[in-house]
Amino acid sequence: MMAYDPLDAPNVTYLWTQLLIEELVRNGVDTFFVAPGSRSTPLTVSAVRHPEARVVLHVDERGTAFATLGYGRATQRPAAWITTSGTAVANGQPAVVEASVDGVPMLLLTADRPPELRDTGANQTIDQVKIFGDYVRWQVDVPPPSVEVDPAYVLTTTNQAVHQSRRVPAGPVHLNCGFRKPLEPVESDRSIEVPDPVADWAREETPFTTYPTPVPSASAPDVDAVASAVEGGLDGLVVAGRLDREADVKATRRLAARLGWPLLPDITSRLRLGPESRADRCAFGDLILTSDDFQKTQRPEAVVQVGGRFTSKRLRLFLRDANPDVWAVVRPDPSRIDPDHRGTHHVEADVASFVEQLLARVGAVPEPSHWQMAWERANTRAAAVVEEHAQSEALTEPSVATLLSRQVPSDHALMAASSMPVRDLNRHASTAGSAVPVYANRGASGIDGTVATAAGLAEAQKGGVTLLIGDLALWHDLNSLALLQDRPVVVVVLNNNGGGIFHFLPIQEYDDVFDPHFTTPQHRDFEAVAETFTLAYHRPDSRSAFIEAYRHACDAGEPTILEVKTERESNRQIHEQIEKAVADVVGGGTGVDDAC
Questions:
Q1: N or C: which end of the chain has fewer CB within 10 A?
Q2: SS3 (DSSP) at 180
Q3: What is the structure's pLDDT at 276?
């Protein structure tokens, strides 16, 4: 078999698209999520024919865009989204917004009409130039391929696009590619001359232009300022938001241990699950704060927050009201995470390197303080309430979150839909299971594209993916179930016949509009849906049946829907009962039996 030659092109259009795909592959972008269309034919054909490219096909542009997002979440490397012109491009907007807000790399390769057909009434033609506005890190309106333009332009543009998508802050990059007909790989009578630099590149295996990815680091004065602020025996907290790198996870553990501060990990921090952490990890921080007495007596004087946003609104409001003297946010992204305007330091730096610098400047706490012991004792008591609830044979939404976290295989990843699933996992997940990564679209926190995002995770994962999702979010992305074919994704859908989260909001008091205008019940189940998409289906109705069905689905390695029926009003009551029980056992955290 002859080696692939990107310069062996039937016409100039295919020379450009083959150069583009080859240069993407050389930069590590080898996965392409494609929705079918005519104007994008040169991009699709060039990707399909490249021997090292993987092409994932799906009928829906919105779904393929979210799958591209999911792949970028799992790998921190961009995949490419290929789509045709017109409203097909606009369908990528929700995924682009999420990727932009949450710093996920992705490449948007959109096909377009040439300039002479724009604004003429030509079919399937809209203004695609800068269509994604400020939500992309970089954008180029790539002109139609021409023999008059040095093809090195394609290579340097591709390299810049990959670099812009991966550098901090990572995010989506848009290449809007205009094409003239013919769009098929037909032979051209016109000869194509390739300049020597491009010919030399074709004989190599490296990119035309390389861009080392810069790593943000804190200056010595920045580190000194935080070090001086956190020393002196302050009662403090380490709060961990989304963390993507193992080095950052380990550094955060060391930081909390050195300072002697409780560590409050978000479900997306890679610190929330798994039993291997120190006892000072307060995994149930959200539930601990259901106690008003605890909130009053255990207000921190200092907070070091690392990584991205965290899920818990209760924690955010607690920290806002505590108004600590020091609130330092450490993350490599320059954008602020400070919705309540309480931050005192924003350190734009790689988390692991910052922690190493900080630890060199602060001494270790000689023994656990009363402050630390109070948080640890409260965490132990909250955990006991959660575990006791999960022992009941009756399935509830909190117990499903606990059971999933206990049973998830070590080679899986967890994906949590927005609304209640991500909150339930954050509050009720057990620490006794495997330390698997948990993903959630918490940049813009929409419910759209959740199934497709899980499919993108599965494409990137070597193991399986478990998706915890509500019924409305699943209805919202139903056609993306087609992406699960031959992918080991277990969809656990909590079907409470509508939007259960609205029962926790003030609008639930307004009976004249609450149901159905906010809860929007569908009065359907997903058994026929599973049959339509040839997915395995189970509807467990007890704790033991759920564990058996989930284990079977994971062992089988086939796409499966597990549907758990619950009731919205009783779900709210169950949450309130758990929170009251936790508040009762936690108290103020300073009682006689809490003393060390």
A1: N
A2: coil
A3: 67
Beta bridge partners of 82: 34, 109
The backbone torsions φ and ψ at residue 186, rounded to the nearest 5 degrees and listed phi first, read -90, 150
- The CB-based long-range contact list for 195-198 (8 Å cut-off, 24+ gap) reads 195/150, 195/151, 195/152, 197/152, 198/7, 198/19, 198/150, 198/151, 198/152, 198/155
User: What is the end-to-end Cα distance of the chain in Å, rounded?
Assistant: 73
Give the per-residue pLDDT at 278.
55
**The one-letter amino acid at 212:** P
Residue 151, SS3?
coil
Q: CB–CB of 150/195 below 8 Å?
A: yes
Calpha distance 385→575 (Å, rounded): 12
DSSP 8-state code for residue 535: -
How far apart are the C-alpha atoms of 75 and 65, rounded to whole Å? 16
For 201, the 3-state DSSP assignment is helix
Residue 502 to residue 506: CA distance in whole angstroms: 8
* Residues ≥6 apart with Cβ < 8 Å to 576: none
What is residue 590's predicted lDDT score, i.e. its pLDDT? 60
User: Other CB atoms closer than 10 Å to residue 136's CB: what's the count?
Assistant: 21
Rounded CA separation 274/511 (Å):
42
Lookup result for tokens 């509830």: 396
Taking residue 475's Cβ as centre, other Cβ atoms within 10 Å add up to 16
Cα–Cα dist 164/155, whole Å: 14
- Widest Cα–Cα separation across the chain: 91
Q: Could you give phi then psi for residue 513, rounded to 5 degrees?
A: -125, -15
How confident is the model at residue 349, as a pLDDT?
95
CA atoms within 13 A on the CB side of 428: 27
Q: Cα 332 to the chain's mean position, in Å? A: 17
Q: Return the pLDDT at 210.
A: 95
* Distance of alpha carbon 431 from the chain centroid: 21
86, two tokens: 């017109």
**Torsion angle in degrees (nearest 10) through CA of 572, 575, 581, 585:** -140
> DSSP string of 49-93?
H-TT-EEEE-S-HHHHHHHHHHHHHHHSS--EEEE-STHHHHTTH
- Percentage helix, strand, coil for the chain under 3-state DSSP, each rounded to 5: 45, 15, 45
Q: Note the pLDDT of residue 534.
A: 97
Q: Would you state the structure tokens that stand for residue 292, as one six-digit string?
A: 């008003």
Q: Whole-angstrom Cα distance, residue 331 to residue 165? A: 17
| Residue 139 token pair | 């954008």
Question: Which residue type does 280 have?
Answer: D
**Could you tell me which residues are beta bridge partners of residue 33?**
56, 81
In the chain, what are the domains?
Answer: 12-202 (3.40.50.970), 220-380 (3.40.50.1220), 397-565 (3.40.50.970)
**Cβ atoms of 289 and 318 closer than 8 Å:** yes
> What is the per-residue pLDDT for 522?
86
